[in-house]
From TrEMBL:
Name this protein carries in UniProt: Mg-protoporphyrin IX methyl transferase
GO MF annotation list: transferase activity
InterPro entries, per database record: SAM-dependent_MTases_sf (IPR029063)
Organism listed in the record: Bythopirellula goksoeyrii
Keyword Transferase: yes
Keyword field contains Amino-acid biosynthesis: no
Keyword list, A-Z: Transferase
Amino acid sequence: MAIAQLTRMLGVERKYNRLRTYLTTSEEFLREEILEFHFFQFNSGNAKYFLQNDQPLDVQIAELPHYQVAESVRSGDSMAIEKAKREYLKYLEFSWPSHGIETSPSNLEEKYDRFVDLVQKTEAAGKLNATVILTKIPGLQGYFVVDGNHRCSIAAALGLPVNAKVLGFPDVFDQYMRVDEFYGTNNKNLPYQSIYIDKAIVRHGRREDIYDRLATLPPELLGGKTVLDVGCNIGMNAIGAYKSGARKVVGLEVSGRIVNFATRFAMFDQCYPNVEFRQFNVDSDQLNGAEQFDIGFMLSVHHHLKNPERLAHIAKNNVTQAVVFEGHPDTNLDDYANFLNTVAFSRIEKVADLATSVFKSELSRPLWVFYK
Ligand SMILES: C[S@@+](CC[C@H](N)C(=O)[O-])C[C@H]1O[C@@H](n2cnc3c(N)ncnc32)[C@H](O)[C@@H]1O
C-alpha cells in the first residue's frame, strides 16, 4: 500500500505531509492518484494558455493537453486524436517562447510525434521505466509534478503506476529552479526575495522582509489601487501588494527566466492574472502612455539602470498618485536628485530604514513614499 494511503487511513496525513516537505522519499502512485497531481511548470506563456482556455489556476494532470493526447492515442479514436493534438500544439506554442524556443510547424510536429511514440512504446512494454519528480508545496494541497508531465499523463491514460521521487520544495528550488542571473540565484545560491506562498516563507532568500516592508506603507496606500512594480524580481512585492488590497498589479522585470518564476508564484498563490509580469528592460523598452497606474513600486532598482532617467520617465508619465521608492544602502535623497527633479513630487515621506539583506542587518536602506 502506498504511504499516502496509509497516512490517510491513520489520519496523520497532514503531519506526514508537513514533514515530507523537507524529506526525499520514493513512492509508487496509481492511476487515480496520478490524475490528481498538480501542474508545476507554469511560465509566462503557458499561464496565458490556461487563462484563455478558462482553466483554473490549479491545473491537474487530468486537465492537461498532455493527458488528452495520451488518452486519445490509447483510445484510437481519430476525432479525439485530432482534437487533442490541436490543443497540445497550441499549448506548446504558448509555452515554448517563454523559454526562448521558437516554434515552427516542423518542430511542433516532431515533439508531438515523439510523445505519441512514447505512449505507444510504453503501452507495448506495459510499464514506465523512468522516475518522475514530485514535490509538496507548504500551504498547498497535493503533489506537484516538477519533472514528468508527459510520463504521468501516459501512466494515467494507460492505467500504469509511476515511480516518483518526492523532494521537499527547498530542494526542488535548488535543483530545478536555478536562475543564472545575479538577481536570480547567482549570489550565494539564494533567490533575492524569499519565496512566500500565502504570506509564509517556503524558501528563504536574501530579502526576508517583503511583508515587513509592505507593512511600513501607509495603510490606505494600496487598497483598491493599481500598482506597477518596476524591477519586480520574482514577484513577491507584486503578489504582496495584491494581498494587501491592491486591485491589479503589473510587474516589469528584465530577466525572462525571473518573469517565468514570478508568474509561477502568482499561479500558486492564486492571484494571476490580477498580478501579472512582463519581461521589460527599463533601459530600452517603452511603456505606452495609456498605461496608467495609481502607485509605482521602484524598489532598489535605480542603481541598476544604465539610463535611470527612464525610471523617472515612467514615474512621471505612467504613475498618477505615488511612488514607493527604496534607495540603495547608505543613500539619501540627494543621490536621487535628478529623479526627484524630473518628476516634481508634491510631498516626500520617509517610511523606514531597512536592512540591506539577511547578511547585513544595519538599517541603512531608505524607503520613501513620493506623492505626486
Ligand atoms: C535589487 S533587485 C530588487 C528587486 C525588487 N524590486 C525588490 O526590492 O525586492 C533589482 C531587480 O531589478 C531588476 N533589473 C535590473 N535592471 C533592470 C532593467 N534594466 N529593467 C528591468 N529590471 C531590471 C533585476 O533583475 C532585479 O530583479
